[in-house]
Fold this sequence. Notes:
Blueprint: E1 2-5, H1 15-26, E2 31-34, H2 35-38, H3 44-76, E3 83-84, E4 90-91, H4 104-119, E5 124-130, E6 135-141, E7 146-147, E8 150-152, E9 155-157, E10 161-162, E11 164-167, E12 173-178, E13 181-188, H5 206-212, H6 235-251, H7 259-284, E14 293-297, H8 305-312, H9 326-333, E15 346-347, H10 350-373, E16 386-391, E17 398-401, H11 405-420, E18 429-431
Parallel strand pairs: 1-2, 5-14
Antiparallel strand pairs: 3-4, 5-6, 6-11, 7-10, 8-9, 12-13, 15-18, 16-17, 16-18
Amino acid sequence: RAVAIAFLHSVRNPLHERRAAELARAAGFEEVVASHLVAPIVGLIARGDSTVADAYLSPVLLRHLRAFRSELAAAHGEPPLLAMQSNGGLVDPDGFRGINSVLSGPAGGVVGLAAAGRAAGHERLVGFDMGGTSTDVSLYAGELPRRYSTEIDGIRLQTPMMDIHTIAAGGGSIVRYADGRLQVGPESAGAEPGPACYRRGGPATVTDCNVVLGRILPGQFPRVFGPAGDEPLDPMASRARLAAIAGEIAAAGGPGYSVETLAAAFLEVAVAKMANAIRELALRHGEDTQRFALVPFGGAAGQHACAVAGLLGIDTLLLHPLAGVLSAWGIGLAQRRCIRRRSIELPFDGQGLGVARAALDALAADARGDLLRQDVTADAISELRTVHLRLAGSDTSLELNWTDEASLREAFRDAHERLYGFAAGERALVIA
């Protein structure tokens, strides 16, 4: 019932894609997605992947959204409804698309940590969002971190989203001994059966390690576990699962772990994975983690925040009172946001700058029109124009705020030196 259309040169001329879309609708397809609307960017593979992802996700998510709106209208009339997007902004249901929702929850966390940092007087923050299945890490240095191309589970997406790095190390990540070493994740016990201590026959997880070490106190948790959902956490199940792994290690000729020392060793592995992910993200942005404060949030981050900070050389932690629900709080703080972009691929000279200027004018008018359609008043709209520049012969571009030619050249040199450790010299630039 859904079709994705991606033609090789539709970025230059979308006429044939539009005609193919008309034919697809006439043939009865319910959801028709054309690549020049989803990702008007040079690069067929990523543009095609993005179009397929949108055609796959949008029908399902929009069906849920329609059902939710219908039930909401029946119970409460027609209250205003907004959806969160991966770019950190809100949109009304008519402008919502599946491809823009992939990282919408974690994006709320980035908005929340930025607000929490500003309120506490911190402008350089590392977001450490650890939940049940995974850990999301992000870097905030005065403005919301954004990227335009990402790969999630092998799918290349060309869409604006918060720059968030996800690793498979959450409270429910399964711990095991394999290939002669201790491993944490990427498999997760999920909510069902959940960790061993949930009394549903689950495997040993990071949560079980924390139970064994006394970092999770069963008496402080509600009696919602077990098959009937009326029992407390079971520390003995955690111990039994970890004892079995210790037996495997000993049988394979490894060290003789006690249950407690094995639990602590597994946590060391998990903390190292999380710290390495943050370090990698910081290096990608040319930053030093020691200049940042760590903001732990999500259900499990507080148990590991000090250990992660220690490995990164961070001596300041910001613990927000709403850390357990910071992503939801951030979604409540988010503003409506509309992002439009277009490939130029012209030399950085007078002619190229003229084309770029005209393109930015058209994109700004389109974005402003979409916000006005959502009943945002004209005086409430602010605008940010950026340009992606790259060295001729390179495929890596740097995003810079739009300004005059001389200032852009200087900004590119500074950004290139900060990221790569050397100046770009006088090589020709391209407006990507």
